[in-house]
């Protein structure tokens, strides 16, 4: 799990979702009330399985020589309150954060967005770091929502998934559709996709797909 | 052909036309009713000649250990109905998909666009995955049209060519002109190119060029 | 220090803050009235500890075979007048320079901006190269301001820090927030963050953070 | 000279000025009525000193196994009519080509632009490939103009320099300022730089600079 989480940070770098040390990936350890997360203040080039840290579901450091990411409390809150979640990702990726700065959800005007998110990507509340506010905002917004990503107002993106890789995929796709819909909107209004077509696309992608092999 | 198709996916990555596993290249096997296509759910880093899959013109898997790309039915429909086509590419590249989200054709305001596409890049219909709708939309739009690329509404790009490399070139050029024309339009109206100049440029590029060497 | 300053230029390249030879990093030599800076006219690929140059606080060359960066006078003025500064960075990074071309400060509408800059990133005066005008403009704008970066009108960015790495981080974050706020503003007005929340975020980031480990 | 010209194409790729095989660099052979240019239809990865081609000032192939670039006539016309020019570069770089598509010169609102171009980057006429029209348009626009780059309407950029490297630098800087001024204009009007300040900056950069070392 340390290896998986360390390696997945390279995807954040590859897709330009992060600068300096500003984003992080975590993954729940199957069968235990623990998760692996990025250490604070270590650059992406220097991440190794060894310097990843392990925390319990209250965000306390259980194993590791570095302090855990400053966003650990938000990750922990999600794991505590959404048992189906196996991975969490946080980034300040440019286009998604721009929608977040306006407090505007991304409308579902692309089939790839219907596939992955099943509709719009919603806005979560403005929340300060330091207590459970961010975690609560994430959970309240995503519980019962199809979307695996939430745009936290004036802040950035949190994405979730059944495992860490799935959460990273959601973070990558979120920035990709945030950018494409932004660009589309710059020169006019994108055409809406009818709700029942969104439903069909989402259903097919989650089910037909799942029965064969991951895309 | 497996080697060629596997290698061409690297061009999609190099020109930032794809994220995660969302685009695909296929190439018709000369002299046979078969084509080689990307396997589903395999990342671009892991593509090898060996894990490419071979399908017949109905999209059925003929050879390979992975399921074929989820867009295989659309590729197959094109090969079945456009015998002159030897390669097909599909991407969700950002700028082209943004035009597609608005359902707006890209006007021909660049000489490079006249050279490669001979005029505007047209919009194809909104079509759901799962049957021949996407393939039909591609073929109906591109049959008898100079353009080697079509913007499928709310979806992305399909491009065609005499072989896989030519279809990849069209996909690369489509995103390049989609971006440049978008940027031009952000601050005003691009100047039109007279139709007979477009015709001269296209004719020269397709013919004079062809008699010497590929550009 | 030569090694550190030489290596930090690679971060300017990595984050696309510079083209050709247009940006530079310097670092004060602890305990001495000297600083290390990029040589003029040497490309980023060719920077080594050996070809870095050492200047005194009047910007005179003290050690090195190349002429110092043409921006040396501005760096020297900052070191002379802000003893707490241990590193200075100058770039023409795209989005920050675009705000500078309009003479417009970047409003603080992102929590990452409150963390790093404690408020808006201010505009400095239009100043010509050749005397102390640029240095004076930087110091007058940043003295007593929380921001570690200033947008020099019609020119580009100067950033400062307690050491060269911290100044590079400020240059990287400045371009990142300049881009995100620009993108946000393209489609409407970003939501403001209340001043006391900005204060809380800044205080926490500078203090709580500092007591544990650098982020 | 073959080595220099071959290597300089890597700068076009590094700064994202070209896609596929669409841009080219040439360099005059000192003391001879000959120049080295990119072969047609060879990808940037495959350029070597050996496959560069040599042409005379009428654009005829003198040495080489490949056909010369399809833009050779324009390069040759420039060398024939501007004896002070030692290098020519052509690209379809995105932002510069967007200004060209609108037929709009780039106003000089950045000090880096005053340094390198001494004022606006002008628009050249719409001209078709196939005779001397493009070359004439370049020469008529740039003769007696400070700018080393011209935006050929609906087409792209041609830049010149005392040698090939200097022309490549102009192409890189042209795209950089085209992008920054575009971004600035998206959210309002950039502040003008007074003409006499532009003159001072240009004079200093061309003269003071030249007496020390190239930047």
UniProtKB/TrEMBL annotation, chains A, B, C, D:
SMART domains: Aldolase_II. Keywords: Metal-binding, Zinc. InterPro entries: Aldolase_class_II_sugar_metab, Aldolase_II/adducin_N, Aldolase_II/adducin_N_sf. It comes from Nonomuraea rosea. It is an enzyme of class 5 (isomerase). The lineage of its organism: Bacteria, Bacillati, Actinomycetota, Actinomycetes, Streptosporangiales. It catalyses: L-ribulose 5-phosphate = D-xylulose 5-phosphate. The keyword Cell division does not apply. Belongs to the aldolase class II family. AraD/FucA subfamily. Its cofactor is Zn(2+). Residues 3-182 form the Class II aldolase/adducin N-terminal domain. This is L-ribulose-5-phosphate 4-epimerase. The keyword Zinc-finger does not apply. Its EC number is 5.1.3.4.
């Amino acid at each position: 799990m340390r290896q998986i989480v360390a390696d997945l940070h390279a995807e954040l770098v590859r897709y330009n979702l992060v600068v300096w040390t500003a984003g992080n990936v975590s993954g729940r350890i199957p069968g235990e009330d623990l998760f692996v997360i990025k250490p604070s203040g270590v650059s992406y080039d220097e991440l190794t399985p060894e310097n990843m840290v392990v925390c319990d579901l209250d965000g306390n450091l259980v194993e590791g020589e570095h302090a855990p990411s400053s966003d650990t409390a938000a990750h922990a809150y999600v794991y505590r309150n959404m048992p189906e979640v196996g991975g969490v990702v946080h980034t300040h990726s440019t286009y998604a954060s721009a929608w977040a700065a306006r407090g505007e959800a991304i409308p579902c005007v692309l089939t790839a967005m219907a596939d992955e998110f099943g509709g719009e990507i919603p806005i979560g509340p403005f929340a300060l770091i330091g207590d459970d506010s961010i975690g609560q905002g994430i959970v309240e917004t995503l519980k019962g929502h199809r979307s695996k990503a939430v745009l936290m107002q004036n802040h950035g993106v949190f994405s979730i998934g059944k495992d860490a890789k799935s959460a990273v995929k959601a973070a990558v796709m979120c920035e990709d559709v945030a950018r494409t819909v932004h660009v589309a909107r710059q020169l006019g209004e994108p055409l809406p996709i009818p709700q029942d077509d969104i439903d069909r696309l989402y259903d097919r992608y989650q089910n037909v797909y799942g029965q064969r092999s991951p895309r």
